[in-house]
Amino acid sequence: MTDDWKGLFERGRVIPPHSQTVRLAQDSSHTHSQGFQIILKHLDGLHIQQEKKEGESEGNRKREPVKYQLSVSLLDTSHQHFFGRTLKSSPQQMSGVHRAIFNEVVYLHTSLRLPSVVAVVELAALQSRADGSQHALGCGFAILHLFSSMTEPQATEGDRRLSMYHGTPRNLLHPLVRDPIEQNKLLRPIDGAHLVCSLKPHPALAPAMHLFPQNMLVSGDENIPGVTPSPTGDSLLKPHMVKSLTCFLDRLSISLHPSLEKFESQLLQHVSTDCHNTKHSGPESSPVVVIQERRLHVGVHNGWGFLERPQAVVLETTEATDWSRGRTKGGTSRQGTLTRDCSSSPSQNLALRSSLELKLPSHQAVGIALQLEYVFSSSLIGDGKLSSTSTISRTAFMQCLRWGVWCPFQEWGTLRAEEVKLSLQGGSTPNPYGIMAYTSSSNSQSPAQVVDERDMVRFRLSSSSVQKASSSTPVSPRRSRAGQQRKPPSPSPGQSLRASQASPPGSPQGPGELPAASNITHLEVDLNVSPRDRLPAYQSAALANEGHLELQELPFTPIHAPIITMGTHAAPSSSFVSSRSSLAHLYSAGFPNITDPSGLVAEVQDPTEPVNFDPQREEADPLQGNVLLLQFLAFSRIPQQGGSSNWPDSVHFTFQLYRFPPVTTQRLKLLGIDKLPKKSSETPPCVLAVINKDGTVNSGSPGLQLQFRVDGAFLQPGERRWFLRYLALHTLQVDVWDSQSLLLIGSTALGLKHMLRQGRPAVQATHELEVITTEYMGEGVPVSLHRAPNPISVFTTIKGRLHLRLGNVGCPVDQNKPNKPQCLPPSRSHIISPPDATSGFTGGSLSSKSIQRLSVRNAARAQRLVELDGDLVPLLQSHMKEGGGTPCTNTPWWGETDDVRQRKLNRMVAVRQHEGGQDGTGSEVKTKVTGRRAERAQLARDLRLMHAYRERSKAEGITHILSQAITIHHTIYATLGTAEYLEYVLRNPFNTPQTVTIYSEDPELSVITDCDEWRYFKTLTKTLTPLEEGMFHLKEGTLAPQVYLRPKESVHVPLKYQTFVSDNSVVPQGPSLIPSGRSTQVAKKHLSNTVLAKSIKVTFRAEDDKPLAICQVSVEPTPHVIDQTFRFYQPELSFLKKALRLSSWERTPVGDTDAGSQISVRCSDPNVICETKMLAQGEPQDVYLKVPGSPSPQIRKFFVTVFTDKWLAVPAQVWQVYVHFLQRVDISCVTGQRTCQSLLIRGTQATRKVRCYTSHPQELKVDPAEVFVLLPGVVQDLQLCVCPLRAGSRFCYLTVVDVEQHTLVSCWLLSLTCRLPILSKAFEMCAPVGGGRGSTRKITYTNPYPTSRVLLLRSDHPDLLQFKEDSFEIGGGETYRIGLRFAPSQSPGAQEILIYINNQEETTEETFCVKVKYT
């Protein structure tokens, strides 16, 4: 076998797979190819050898021993279609132990990862004949299943023993052979014959997968062009690519025989005739076929396939001159003119003005494949003439005309900058592009014709070094498809209108159909050609083609700053421990002790020691209740650069513990020490004290204590073990806020495992936690596709230390309240069984005593009609009022009260008595009689009205009673993202089979129709009920699931409730005024972050559409656990795009070969885009967020649930995300110099007292700086002065806070871009390392002005450098000595310190740089 291009091309042709199988793989999201390795180790076949010997003749037994060979092919069992290429192993002999050892390694890559794709291995016996040939006889075959139903390899480790079957693989093409193949009776296994092999993914094959086609079986010892041969013989085990050379193909021209004009004229005649013969049109309609475009496809081919997608360029017609001499002395190409008069030039060629960039691996079988393609446009008009105003029906199609392949390394060995002449060919000969080429009888000449008279392409191929000296502009592979400069094609003389004599256009629908033209886009027009010189057919067809073109997406990954999530085990541990004096001061403040129920102090645990969690000990604890205590003791300030030493003055905290609602604490004052100890570098902790509503400090116990009671009244049945698991594994994240500016100081997290009591009455642990904040710098830098992005800097700053005490006190369960079961039986807790069919509705009674003795379900109390239907109230009430009866309500229908109406009636009776005089008694009797008659008439009218109402509502009431008889109620306690699994026992009460359709009112409660999902939930919930595959089918039109029931049969219908919608309302930013105590009752009154309560009805309807059973599911909301909270600040009305990187806890279990596919995310806000991309195993996994913007100062809150299981049963993590939208102001400034900016704020609906705060008070100043009144609707001007100390880009914040309500009024996001000033002088000095008073120096400054000036001194490191005087006055032309004092450093190194000399307007006059070396 030869290793040249032609030999590889003939051997590398593969049979394509079935089109429906390819479509099925694409629908299953299997678009990328994956590499695999198959090792055929050995064959155990005693019976095979015996059968061969029996079949041999006496003469054959004296010949050479029989050798065995394996042949491997791919088979699609669903369509009984062999595809790919058959690979044969090297022949091997059978050893004495009846074993043939092959050890054949086979590689392939495919995207058809479907269960129907199998590998068929055939065993053949080879026997040499007398003439030297070999006789092959099939001995059996085996079937290797490559993929399971999970679209993954069936076995990733270990060997597999495949049974051998009699016959040949052609048995698998029998019509009766269907899946499962192994169970078919037509296949008879060979006793004792087995093939041992292994199958596993081969990720190392990814770099070489573009060198050979998909579904092609390749041996490891084959010579693959582009892969370096391995000395071990297996070059694909760890493939190494051959180095590619960047080359440029230019000066390309194509000459067609006998000339371009005659060739295209003959071509148009043939195409028109073909269209006429195809459509069989009459002579009354004539087509107009013109050449719209001439294209050339250029690609690098290694005999097996293209290494990259071929480039498509547009050719132009030019004069037939020698292209090698077609450039002037100035180095520019000669511009050819396209005219319609063929006499202006002797002949024309096709030429490419620009050059193409190609990458060629250095291998003799690598060639450059060229294909000449024409685009035709066929127009049809009623009269057969072209017109710019008439309506034209067009169709466009393409046809391959010529092709050729040239191998540079086979011809030359190395690249040389010489002209290449390559003959082009056509016809039905197989070519790399896989389509048939055009040919004509007139073009077929004798093989002995001169090469120059044949179709020829000329070009020059040069390397990158030679191309740099050339003036031609190279076209990259990307630009050649989307940016190739060209002119619109003009018609050649052969494209005259006499082609209209042909019949109607019939566009050949072959490989060259128009959709294949989507690889090329034209982005320019020829401005030298006037519009009247262009044919309308060309312009219209070109516009029609461009409307279908799409830009091709390039492999590009957006650059985000990944934020590392903490997970469930992460908690920042501080290595800093306060001194004993600080701890003595802290605990002498008198914090309340944590005691057990007997009054003893709780046992203290060391937070640095591990905790051994024993669930059995927790279950055996007599104190089943838990009271969780959180005591916020103190906060240690850490001096920040550019900040005050007394910052912060007051703080408050936000957090969420377990399922309790989010907590926002009261304001807490930081009480410092009046007299600090001398010679102490440590800042003692400040004790926290509660601030009252009036602003005074609470004189009670210091600190803040919050308690959360977790007992039987709070926990749901079976929830206690989940609560203990939460304490053992999760962390509590606490956000610390500045109560004055309402800015986030930082966050901290601590593990809750030390709150496990493990049988003890009470435990406590004290933590000293670092409050940190993370800033991402450089996010505003634009990212280029062709340029490496600038690095994103991540800064983590410690803002302070929080002293927190956690405690857990056991409490007994209240015996007076009915105890809830701690755990329901697993086999019955998820099953909904309807009541016994023999029991029915037994009626009701008016006696309250009898109702108490009966079951609530089977009892009913009679009710008045006015209580059942509100529409009867005004009708009956008005008549009863007029008749003097007892009213149904206290208020008449016209709005009068009883007292007012009674006074009116008494007044009317008194008037009548006065008018009647002495006859008052008779009148009174007459009035009473008349009143009784009227009352009886009104009552009779009311009775008729009620009778009509009962008749009208009787059918509805009976239907309601009957539906209640078949309705069963079930309550679930749902949390966000958690799937609640149910099984409803559906029974067919009829003696005939029924097809029951299941309808659900809410899509969140659905039927599980997938058998694998059903099996997963049964295993997860430990439900021991029968499972049936293929039980459901979807109803046509509605897609409602249906199930077939036999007479009196019962089945379990699996249901799943899952919601991702939650309450996303946000509490106003600021401290809380609620009391410090937290109890279960308070938590139940504020059920935030929960799903919505609802009632969902699931109806099971029979074939007559009547309800067979009804399941009423009540959803009770339950708060969910928050594992981590993220806060982002974003400019208003702009999208927030962030990437959250998952930690190691979210990785899939070991052994899963596709880790990325198991990570799924969902978001509670439908307007937020939340997704994760599938990556290879070992790659970091990111969750991408895209949040739409909102006006300032709104806050958007949503939840992200992360799942690691395929069916999204239980979220592994629940994240709470806050996005603060602020007004953005961009400020460009110079370090050390003041820059002013004006801001406007508009008053709200009420008068408010507000104050402005900044995140960097030393660098940002606001006027007014004190409290001012903001009137309603009035616009207030704020003057912001920025004087940065360091260069770079960063974000700062400005808030306007209501000082009375402690709420946020407005907020700005200040984007500072600071640059360094020009340095005037530079100094260098040395300073000692360690303690001491530091070093002092002096530098001189000369006033260059003739007048006196007052100057100010600033430094970018005020913590390292202090001035003797912050300002000084200097006369004109005088010199002043500036005194400097450098603080000592605790570590050696060097630091550059800038000194700014500013005038009174804070404009920098001079900048000095002092480099201090600490030694």
Describe the structure.
The protein is mainly β and about 1400 residues long. It is about 15% helix and about 35% strand. The protein contains 19 helices and 65 strands. The strands form twelve sheets. Strands 23, 24, 25, 26, 27, 28, 29, 30, 31, 32 and 33 form an eleven-stranded mixed sheet that branches. Strands 44, 46, 49, 50, 52, 54, 56 and 57 form an eight-stranded mixed sheet that branches. A hairpin with a 4-residue loop joins β56 and β57. α15 runs antiparallel to α17 and α16 (about 900-915) packs antiparallel against α17 (about 920-965). The protein is extended, with a radius of gyration of 44 Å. It starts with a helix and ends with a strand.
Coarse structural class: mainly beta
Question: What's the main sheet like?
Answer: 11 strands, mixed
Q: Poorly predicted ranges (pLDDT <50, ≥5 residues)? A: 57-61, 280-284, 322-345, 381-391, 442-453, 468-548, 567-575, 778-792, 818-828, 837-858, 877-895, 1075-1088, ...
Number of strands: 65
The overall average pLDDT, rounded, is: 77
Helix proportion of residues, in percent?
10-25%
Radius of gyration: 44 Å
Task: Based on Cα principal axes, name the global outline.
Answer: extended
Strand content: 35-45%
Helical segment count: 19
Distance between the termini: 74 Å
